[in-house]
Structure to design on (405 residues):
């Protein structure tokens, strides 16, 4: 199997500009998440304060997501993304200044981080609606693969760079750098040509939401895959993130071992993105769902007490599967959904996929006390295998071209 070293999407000047700006902001964001955590702790905050700050980002991200879909379809994806990144530039500047003096009021941090999360919720649905306009035709799949690779690579590099920079210059410097990264993204978005002009809307916000929901549920493959991913995040991925470090601390070698596992998951996602470049399977949803079988491997390896090399290999394969499925699902959505509702449908899909994740994060620890760590992880692995196989039997998933209803 050969790799496509000249993806079609990179031949489009608009996509190249956006890709450069987006990757820069991704790197800054992955660094900023680490910086905020350590800044709260270094300024005298404890676990309770840190939990409040982290929750302040996640809660608006979930609650504002559907609003972001409506706004993206009403105003146009480029305009919404410009606004969101400009706001995030300001919030990160505010956070950098708040931590610069060595102390910061908790309410100030919560307010700034909440606005950061809300802006991210506006940006996310608009992103999925923007890509078809800057990577048309055969470049769409490559564009999604490249964007996924950027997310994976920055998730690996960002925490490492943040740790080095926090040690050398403090958390405020990382947050200031993140503000600059959003400024780069704003510049890249300003350089993009106008793509689709949103049509004037006289309908209400509720009517727009209902229209998006009607489009979403009319496509069996869309709501099934969203439900599948949502239950995976609840029952498999959340327990893995919570209980995996516990197993690592107990029997694998601690934080270093767990860091290696997560780094290899990210590396697998980069490999998966490379494998997708230039490839368009005849039955994309079937291939995407088959790739999710690999998501069960890391939890299964932990539950059965496998040694660290086995767990690392499982994480690598799961990362490959994540990139394959994510690229194919996203491309199918962008190719088959009407542009006028794409941001709303992306918002519904993302909401369904991630809304239950925080519940899983909160429940994994108490459940492990009741039934044991291995039981929780093992159940997740079995669930994922059974769920993926069940989804693969559906006619809506096995067709060559996704259909409505």
């Amino acid at each position: 199997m050969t790799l496509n070293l000249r993806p079609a999407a990179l031949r489009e000047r608009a996509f190249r500009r956006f890709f450069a700006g987006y990757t820069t902001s991704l790197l800054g964001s992955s660094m900023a998440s680490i910086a905020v955590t350590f800044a709260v702790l270094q300024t005298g905050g404890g676990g309770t304060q840190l939990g409040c700050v982290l929750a302040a980002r996640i809660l608006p991200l979930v609650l504002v997501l559907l609003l972001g879909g409506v706004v993206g379809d009403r105003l146009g994806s480029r305009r919404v993304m410009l606004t969101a990144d400009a706001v995030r530039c300001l919030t990160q500047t505010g956070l950098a200044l708040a931590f610069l003096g060595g102390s910061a009021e908790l309410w100030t941090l919560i307010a700034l981080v909440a606005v950061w999360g809300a802006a991210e919720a506006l940006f996310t649905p608009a992103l999925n609606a923007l890509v078809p306009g800057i990577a048309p035709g055969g470049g769409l799949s490559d564009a999604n693969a490249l964007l996924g690779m950027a997310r994976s690579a920055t998730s690996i590099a960002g925490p490492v760079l943040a740790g080095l920079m926090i040690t050398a210059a403090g958390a405020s410097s990382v947050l200031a750098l993140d503000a600059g990264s959003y400024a780069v993204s704003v510049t890249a978005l300003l350089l993009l040509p106008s793509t689709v002009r949103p049509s004037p809307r006289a309908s209400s916000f509720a009517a727009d939401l209902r229209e998006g929901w009607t489009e979403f549920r009319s496509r069996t493959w869309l709501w099934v895959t969203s439900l599948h991913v949502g239950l995976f995040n609840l029952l498999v991925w959340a327990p893995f993130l919570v209980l995996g470090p516990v197993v690592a601390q107990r029997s694998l070698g601690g934080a270093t071992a767990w860091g290696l596992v997560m780094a290899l998951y990210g590396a697998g996602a980069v490999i998966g993105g490379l494998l997708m470049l230039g490839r368009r399977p005849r039955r994309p949803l079937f291939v995407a769902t088959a790739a999710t079988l690999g998501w069960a491997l890391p939890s299964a390896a932990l539950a059965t007490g496998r040694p660290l090399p086995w767990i690392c290999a499982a994480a690598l394969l799961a990362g490959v599967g994540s990139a394959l499925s994510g690229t194919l699902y996203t491309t199918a959505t962008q190719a088959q959904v009407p542009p006028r509702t794409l941001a709303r449908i992306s918002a519904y899909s993302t909401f369904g996929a991630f809304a239950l994740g925080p519940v899983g994060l909160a429940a994994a620890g108490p459940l492990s006390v009741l039934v044991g760590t291995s039981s929780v992880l093992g159940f997740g692995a079995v669930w994922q295998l059974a769920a993926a196989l069940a989804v693969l039997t559906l006619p809506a998933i096995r067709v060559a071209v996704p259909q409505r209803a």
About this structure: The chain has two domains: 1-202, 204-405. The CA atoms of residues 40 and 401 lie 49 Å apart. The chain has a mean pLDDT of 85. Residues 1-202 form a domain with the Growth Hormone; Chain: A; fold (CATH 1.20.1250.20).
